[in-house]
Write a structure and sequence with these properties.
Elements: E1 9-10, E2 14-15, H1 16-34, H2 43-48, E3 50-64, H3 68-71, E4 77-82, E5 85-98, E6 101-105, E7 111-115, H4 117-121, E8 124-138, E9 141-144, E10 147-149, E11 154-158, E12 163-172
Antiparallel strand pairs: 1-2, 3-8, 3-12, 4-5, 4-11, 5-8, 6-7, 8-9, 9-10, 11-12
């Protein structure tokens, strides 16, 4: 019995074209389930990820606002924008507002810190915001709507009266 017959069948039973099509389909399925895509997480990682409450501490430097205390409040639900893409809603659980400081040396060599008069004159303040939401936890970290959040990630939050840009200082889960 010949390996291939006149119709191109292997051992007289299987078409070589059918075998090639099945092999291509299997390679594509393995690629979809195992190899990561643009988001950095494969479908297999996303399926095995568990949802947990995640806290992201966001640092905002030099926010120009007349009254930041009335603008950003604990308990507000705001939209989170990660790498210029909307990624859902988060709740603000903690707000720390500070006036930027400058350092000066005393005659004895010790340092003294005081409010930067330029920042006071231009209504600038530094904020530390704690944001909380449910996100997927993979072996690569926290994922908000298929976008990873790590220390240093650029984050915007959008409320009814503001859009504030900052970066992630810490991610806790």
């Amino acid at each position: 019995m010949a390996l291939l017959d006149r119709q191109g069948r292997l051992f007289g039973k299987f078409s070589i074209l059918d075998i090639g099509a099945i092999a291509i389909i299997m390679i594509v399925l393995v690629g979809l389930l195992v190899v990561p895509g643009n988001g950095g997480s494969s479908i297999a990682q996303m399926l095995t990820a568990e949802n947990k409450t995640v806290q992201v501490i966001m640092n905002v430097r030099g926010l120009s606002a007349v009254d930041p205390q009335s603008l950003v409040k604990v308990g507000d639900k705001v939209k989170i924008i990660i790498r210029n893409q909307p990624r859902g809603e988060v709740t603000i659980t903690k707000v720390d507002i500070a006036v930027p400081k400058i350092v000066a040396a005393k005659a004895d060599g010790t340092a003294v810190f005081f409010d930067d008069p330029r920042a006071v004159a231009t209504s600038q303040s530094d904020l530390s915001l704690t944001l909380e939401a449910t996100a997927q936890i993979t072996n690569d970290g926290a994922v908000f709507a298929s976008e990873k959040v790590k220390v240093g990630t650029s984050i915007d939050i959008e409320g009814a009266k503001y859009i504030i840009r900052g970066s992630a200082m810490a991610v806790r889960y």
